[in-house]
């Protein structure tokens, strides 16, 4: 079940995602599911990141994407700011701000993100055509548009798309930075339809995509990501407050280069 955000939002970048106390309810629920699965009381099946992302065939290992906090910067109306009802939010290229915003463009290493939404009840064999995905993440400096100091007048790195016949959406973006206390990640919400998404109602699933360490190391060695090197050095997927209880279903397959850009792929079972 989706949890609401608090009304007050901290200004500091390093306070993104509330911390451990905010995430404990979700973490406890996921640990309980895993314990039950180990006792053969709950069949744990899933769509892992290294499997086929076409959603065209069922797999014996299929389970819904883990539910995670949306953090304090979703801009989905849950904490006052709502970008989902703005004209122009339905788009594939999310690098630029739109509408009445300041009109800035997020800089960084190019990244495309493809999510394949599939029906978990079908064994991940049925694509969810006509569903919708709202995706957002921080910029190269670790700041979130609409919230963080210096980019409150921007709404870049946020967008909504409807899934195609293969259950897929692809967003053109930039590789997010790493800020203090959190492993590099991308937020997303899945809705049953585009109408639900743009009305900011009836969220089906809220989760986060994790980015692989080797790719992060390579990207953060480039100009503009200097602060990310320091932050990443004190983190690991195993110690991250969101991913430390298991990230196998959230770790994207990422390929490419800093010159040509990267492509991240993840199958999302709902």
Brief rundown of the structure:
With 270 residues, the chain is of the alpha+beta class. The protein is 15% helix and 21% strand.
Order of helices and strands: HEEEEEEHEHHEE
Percentage of helical residues? 10-25%
Question: What best-fitting shape do the alpha-carbon axes yield?
Answer: globular
- End-to-end Cα distance: 13 Å
The number of distinct β-strands equals 9
Outline the biggest β-sheet.
Answer: 5 strands, mixed
Mean pLDDT across every amino acid position = 84
Structural class, judged by helices and strands?
Answer: alpha+beta
Tally of contiguous helical segments: 4
How much β-strand is present in the residues?
15-25%
Low-confidence parts: 1-58
The whole-angstrom Rg is 17 Å
């Amino acid at each position: 079940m989706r949890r609401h955000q608090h009304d007050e939002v901290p200004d500091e970048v390093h306070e993104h995602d509330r911390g451990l106390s905010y995430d404990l309810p979700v973490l406890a629920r996921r640990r309980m599911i895993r314990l039950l699965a180990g006792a053969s009381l709950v069949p744990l099946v899933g769509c892992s990141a290294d499997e086929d992302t076409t959603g065209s065939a069922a797999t014996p290992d299929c389970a819904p994407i883990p539910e995670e906090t949306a953090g304090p910067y979703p801009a989905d109306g849950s904490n006052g700011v709502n970008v989902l009802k703005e004209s122009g939010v339905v788009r594939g290229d999310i690098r630029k701000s739109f509408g009445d915003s300041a009109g800035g463009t997020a800089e960084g290493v190019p990244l495309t993100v493809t999510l394949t939404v599939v029906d978990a009840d079908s064994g991940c064999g049925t694509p969810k055509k006509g569903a919708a995905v709202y995706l957002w993440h921080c910029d190269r400096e670790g700041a979130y548009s609409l919230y963080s100091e210096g980019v409150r007048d921007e709404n870049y790195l946020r967008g909504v798309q409807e899934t195609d016949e293969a259950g897929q959406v692809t967003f053109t973006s930039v590789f997010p930075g790493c800020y203090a206390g959190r492993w590099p990640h991308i937020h997303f919400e899945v809705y049953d339809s585009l109408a639900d998404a743009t009305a900011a109602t009836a969220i089906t699933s809220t989760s986060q995509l994790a980015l692989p360490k080797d790719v992060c190391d390579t990207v953060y060695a480039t100009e503009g990501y200097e602060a990310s090197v320091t932050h990443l050095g004190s983190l690991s997927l195993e110690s991250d407050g969101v991913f430390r209880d298991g990230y196998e279903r959230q770790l994207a397959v990422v390929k490419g280069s800093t010159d040509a850009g990267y492509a991240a792929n993840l199958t999302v079972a709902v």
